Amino acid sequence: MAKIDREDIQIVCNHSNWSEVGVRKTLEGQIYSGVVSWQRFLKFLLLALGVSFTAAGILFFFAYNWAELHKFVKLGIIEALIALLILIAVFAKTKPLIKKVLILAASILVGVLYAVFGQVYQTGADAYDFFLGWTLFITIWVLFFNFAALWALFVALLNVTFILYAEQLAYEWSELFLFCLLFGMNSLLLLGFILIPKIFKMTPFPIWFIQLVALTAIAFSTIGISSGIFEKPEPSFWALFIMASIFYGVGIWYGLKTKSLFYLSIIPFSVIIILSAALLNLSGEAGMLFAIGIFIVTSITLLIKMLLNYQKKWAS
């Protein structure tokens, strides 16, 4: 078996003379989390909580004492904190994970520094300038330390920058063109995060990060295509539709190849939403709404049944 679960152990116990000691050892070794697992979990949890509370404390400090602080004090405190975090991460003899978390905290403080600078001197810059500068000035840290959480922040900043740029400057961009651009960008990022570690023999990115980027790309395609159905078709809609079709086909193939239920669930769910929007575009009468409800319930039921069958097949 690829993996032993509680049901397997129960079946063996009911049909054999397996001793209680043997069952206990198997449960402790295969099912229950041991001391090492709990220590690792607590270490990461406390480290994440410490960084989060520290960053929150700094933000609340500025929020409460904003009016009383001199502008040089405001900027100086943040710059000193960033410098301190970088120095500790580079020169301190500590674990690589702690160094990466410190860099993540420094990257967040870079955004705080830009926000404070803009408010102190009233630069009048557009919001996208703020996120663009934030993104550019942490790029070196992102590439050098190659930390999944830092990459997640970087990807989020990229998406926010493009969205704000489209709202504030690129007035000629349609909403569908923006969704097409965001979907294409996140799809390329996802492809890079999957292939680059394999090509250069690097440590692969965590599964949660890969799935987060994939979910972001699918969300943009789903929203874009669903909203474009209700409007007059334009080239951006068909470009998004074609790219999404290719992406979905490759995603299903990749999910079957890697035995990942994530891709086999999120992609069909996106298709169900798009098809529901297409049916709603045909008619908004009560009969069509009833038919759409039946379609959603039936399709999701079949999807769950399919996923359960694959899960049993891959677990055997």
From TrEMBL:
Keywords: Membrane, Transmembrane, Transmembrane helix. Residues 43-151 form the DUF2157 domain. Coiled coil: none annotated. It comes from the Bacteria. The chain crosses the membrane at residues 44-66, 72-92, 101-121, 176-196, 208-230, 236-254, 261-280, 286-308. Signal peptide: none annotated. The keyword ATP-binding does not apply. This is DUF2157 domain-containing protein.
